[in-house]
């Protein structure tokens, strides 16, 4: 794998989408684009809500991506437009970029990437840019459209300012800068967007960030189906409440284990410092944490801190009003899911005769844990997963943050057509709204490549 994002020359006439983007840019700004950048969405096969706890995840990039046509100049003004008319144009001076986390519009995600690269490289002045963005990753669907937009913007800003960063550096910068919009993610989405390679899934590990190829077994395809309930992570506190619950659970487990709990924030760090395996640390969860929700008072008493310290040192901006925390359930999910990721990778590596059955079982267990312990599913997603399993999937689970969005199903290749037909008939066609969305909501995917820059080959 090359260490820097690839650069290609392409014939734009070979792609209707690129040709349309080229023409839109020319019409909008009265000049041709100087280069193009793309960053893919992703589907997480297993390992949900554990990257921000320090654990490895197993995603693959999908073929859907965010594309940007770009020119740059010395005006120090950034002009942003979108091919989708529902997304309004925006312009801002490059020396006064402010991101409104209370109003998560598309252009603020783009500006997260710009600001992240600007600060990482201490760019002053920052080049002026004119951009037209075109995305075909379904928004708020759990396929990482927002992170792909941040990654595309980071790549664009690097190139427009004639700088060079490695894929790993870009991924780390883009993971951090998405927090400007208020999302406390763990880095999976940005990592796979840059580190993906065509034809292989990746085990993504953190601290330090690294990616290992995972060859998926022959004989099955992965199908994505969108339940068409949208959930914007930055606009909802659900996601950040889970991050905070995991943080508190880590501190309570660390304190019970005699560790310096104030400096530990992640469940993964606690396991490492306790020197326990995942099964053993699950036993520790049973001993230390109780299934009933913890009140703010109990958290303070258990940790020996004041309500003010809880608010200032542990809670995030949009979790200040939370009154109860389900520490036992969240910790059980995280440690159990981390073990399932390890088993999934082992099965792929060993490729036993019943590999597909084993992987399917792990995916099903993952969905049950997301639904029951992490409570990040929703009725429509559960119904869709149930239909997928009835239609012949060996494994089916929510993918992405949850509370809506997509399921990913592993389907025997010979059953693919009948599977698609059954899901179409049972989930999409009975509801006119869903029937209208079906074509972009139900599709087979294979591992795609990572973020890249390209110019027009004349």
What does this structure look like?
The structure is a single chain. The strands form 4 sheets. This protein has a 7-stranded mixed sheet with strand order 1-15-2-3-6-4-5, sandwiched between helices. Strands 12-13-9-14 form a 4-stranded antiparallel sheet. A two-stranded antiparallel sheet has the order 7-8. Helix 8 packs antiparallel against helix 11 (327-350). The protein has 15 helices and 15 strands. The model has no long low-confidence stretch (mean pLDDT 94). A hairpin with a 7-residue loop joins strand 4 (77-82) and strand 5 (90-93). By secondary structure, it is an alpha+beta fold. It is globular.
Number of strands: 15
Distance between the termini: 28 Å
**Residue runs with pLDDT of under 50 for 5 or more positions:** none
Provide the succession of SSEs.
EHEEEEHEHHHEEEHHHEHHEHHHEEHHEE
Helix proportion range: 40-55%
Rg calculated over all Cα atoms:
22 Å
Biggest pleated sheet: 7 strands, mixed
Tally of contiguous helical segments: 15
**Mean pLDDT across all residues, rounded?**
94
Gross morphology is globular
The secondary-structure class comes to: alpha+beta
Strand content: 15-25%
Strand order of the largest sheet: 1-15-2-3-6-4-5
């Amino acid at each position: 794998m090359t260490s820097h994002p690839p650069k290609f020359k392409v014939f734009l006439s070979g792609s209707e989408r690129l040709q349309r983007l080229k023409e839109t840019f020319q019409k909008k700004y009265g000049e041709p684009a100087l280069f193009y950048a793309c960053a893919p969405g992703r589907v997480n096969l297993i390992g949900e809500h554990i990257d921000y706890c320090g654990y490895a995840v197993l995603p693959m990039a999908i073929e859907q991506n965010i594309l940007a046509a770009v020119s740059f100049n010395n005006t120090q003004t950034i002009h942003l437009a979108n091919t989708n008319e529902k997304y309004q144009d925006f312009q801002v001076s490059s020396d006064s970029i402010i991101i409104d986390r209370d109003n998560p519009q598309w252009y603020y995600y783009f500006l997260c990437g710009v600001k992240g690269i600007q600060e990482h490289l201490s760019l002053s002045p920052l080049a002026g840019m004119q951009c037209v963005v075109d995305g075909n990753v379904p928004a708020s669907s759990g396929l990482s459209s927002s992170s792909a937009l941040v990654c595309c913007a980071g790549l664009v800003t690097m190139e427009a300012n004639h700088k060079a960063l490695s894929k790993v550096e870009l991924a780390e910068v883009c993971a951090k800068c998405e927090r400007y919009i208020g999302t406390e993610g763990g880095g999976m989405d940005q990592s796979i967007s840059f580190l993906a390679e065509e034809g292989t899934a990746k085990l993504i590990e953190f601290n330090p960030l690294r990616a290992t190829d995972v060859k998926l077994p022959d004989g099955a395809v992965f199908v994505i189906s969108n339940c068409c309930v949208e959930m914007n992570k930055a606009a909802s506190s659900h996601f950040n409440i889970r991050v905070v619950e995991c943080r508190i659970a880590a501190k309570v487990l660390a304190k019970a284990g005699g560790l310096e709990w104030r400096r530990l924030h992640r469940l993964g760090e606690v396991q490492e410092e306790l020197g326990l395996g995942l099964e053993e640390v699950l036993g520790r969860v049973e001993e230390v944490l109780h299934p009933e929700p913890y009140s703010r008072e109990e958290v303070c008493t258990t940790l020996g801190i004041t309500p003010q310290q809880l608010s200032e040192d542990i809670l995030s901006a949009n979790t200040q009003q939370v009154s109860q925390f389900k520490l036992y359930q969240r910790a059980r999910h995280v440690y159990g899911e981390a073990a399932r990721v390890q088993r999934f990778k082992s099965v792929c590596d060993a490729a036993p005769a019943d590999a597909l059955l084993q992987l399917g079982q792990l995916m099903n267990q993952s969905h049950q844990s997301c639904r029951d312990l992490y409570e990040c599913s929703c009725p429509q997603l559960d119904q869709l997963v149930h239909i997928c399993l009835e239609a012949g999937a060996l494994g089916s689970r929510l993918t992405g943050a949850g509370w809506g969005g997509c399921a990913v199903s592993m389907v025997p290749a010979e059953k693919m057509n009948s599977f698609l037909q059954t899901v179409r008939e049972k989930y999409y066609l009975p509801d006119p709204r869903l029937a209208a969305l079906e074509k972009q909501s139900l599709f087979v995917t294979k591992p795609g490549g990572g973020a890249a820059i390209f110019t027009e080959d004349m």
